[in-house]
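Why do we bother with a discrete structure alphabet at all? Because it lets us treat a fold like text: something you can write down, compare, and reason about line by line. To make this less abstract, here is a complete entry for V-type ATP synthase subunit I. Read it the way you would read a sentence in a foreign language you are learning: slowly, and without expecting to understand everything at once.
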Amino acid sequence: MTILRVQKVALIGLTQDKPSILDAVQSLGLMHVIPLQAAGTHTQDDALEVNPERLKRALQYLLASREKRRQVLRAPNFNLAEMLTRIDKNRSQRLEMTSRRDFLEKRIRDLEPWGDFNLPEVEALAHQKLWFYLVPNFKMREVERSGLIWTSVHQDNRYHYIVVLSATEPDANRMPVARTLTGQVPLSQLEQELEDLEIALESVEAEREALTRWIYQLQLYMASTADAADLARVAEMTWDVEDVFALQGWVAVKDIEALYDFAQQQGLVFLVEEADVDELPPTRLENAEILGGGQEVVSFFQTPNYHAWDPSRVVFFSFTAFFAIIMSDAGYALLMGGLLAYYWRRLDSSVTARRLRNLSLALVTASLVWGVAVGSYFGAEAPIAALAALKFFDLKDFDGMMALSISIGAAHLILANVMMAWVRRRSLQAYASLGWALAVLSALLGWLFSWPWITQFGLLAGVVLVLVMTEQGQVWQLRQIWRGGLALTNLTKLFGDVLSYLRLFALGLASASLAITFNQLASDVATALPGIGVFLQVLILLTGHLLNFVLTVVSGVIHGLRLNLIEFYNWSLADEGYAFQPFAKQEVTPWKT
């Protein structure tokens, strides 16, 4: 749980060696490059081999295939231009065929009620023609009063399918609807065309599946193209003076030695210095994979400031706890665990996937433990006495659950302010953050224990600290107190943030209440309707609990993250940073099917 300390490093070498040195630095992947001069605007080469958009489109097309072949890992004679042409041709054919198939399917559905027929020649009907109308049933009286020669060839619960015999198209005022266009091609011919098209489409799909064996090779080319563009961009960021160039960047302290050894091997001048006081280095988070799910959540929402602290582990455990309280059902936890077990191996493809998998496992475990503690199993009581004995909380105890939720919220915000005080430890503002923490703690204990004098004193002391220490620097100044008065207006915000944690109790109770309601509804239906009632009971249970499970998971994710990334962040992180982006080559990991 740390933000790695970084230092500013400069590499100086000969311009003639610049391409090879930059390529080697990119292979190391240790440096976040600092531009020493503005990079120019690059235009992508439109040549077939390096067109990134075409590569990306072809790769996405193959990755979308349902079935994939075993990958070709070594292909010395691989021709990218030829492969992209084959993929583009296959993609175009498939688009045309699927579009034509959709048209034929709709046309066939429209023509089926009319039957299979060929329009006769004009002379065959004494120069009379057939006109087709799809007439709603309630408008048939208008057809009967039209005076036209007509017949109904089909009828369903909504329409009559009317054929009118007339030399010219009937006037619009004689028929209640506009005529229907059936086309010249008979139904049997359309069905035959659709069958031939389906066969041809199967061949195109088979070719697409065969092309998926080249996904890895395309990924390699895409990665190399991106690496080359990144290398060209960095090459323009260096400082070039006659025969010498300089590359500067941020490097983690733990990687300094490795980069120094590299500079020695390459014969480069190596300079290292600490960040200036007014500089803001990039933030590089480092967490163990087992708890790295919190880092993924933190990085997705907001990168902490380099001079702040890493909230990844706090977010990991607090989000897990909040999700479990919102779910409040051991049965739903087991269902989510089954889904996780089914996708377990698929979530092993990358470090990010494994981190999120570990976070999901923590959610399942915590939800199961809390579900047993509140004694809810798909909204029912514990099935065996041993599980019933493990029930320690009652969701229907409104006062107890309300006190628990507010206590959790207060503790969360106390921790947030303590961590903010640690970040501001070199400034008197740290005491203002401690004042907020003391005020929340005193107010909580006062509410729980009927306001003994010590809690009143603590609340007053906290408010005074906020008043006199907000906006203070390393030296206290009397004229800054007025800003502390403005800061005290955040008391209402703090009160609202603490009460916001009541959503834990409210959502947990709502989830349990819905489960109980579906159980009761299913039981009542089974009792009222013997026989078919059993089927309806099962249907209500499956549908109801599936709906409640989805709502519970969505609520747990949204509100569990909201309490961390809004309420908690507002009091623990002051400024946003930017992520450490190493100048590194992209890695492509082959996979086999």
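What the structure line is telling us, in plain words: The beta strands are 2-3, 6-14, 31-34, 129-136, 149-155, 159-166, 239-241, 244-252, 269-273, 285-286. The longest helix spans residues 532-572.
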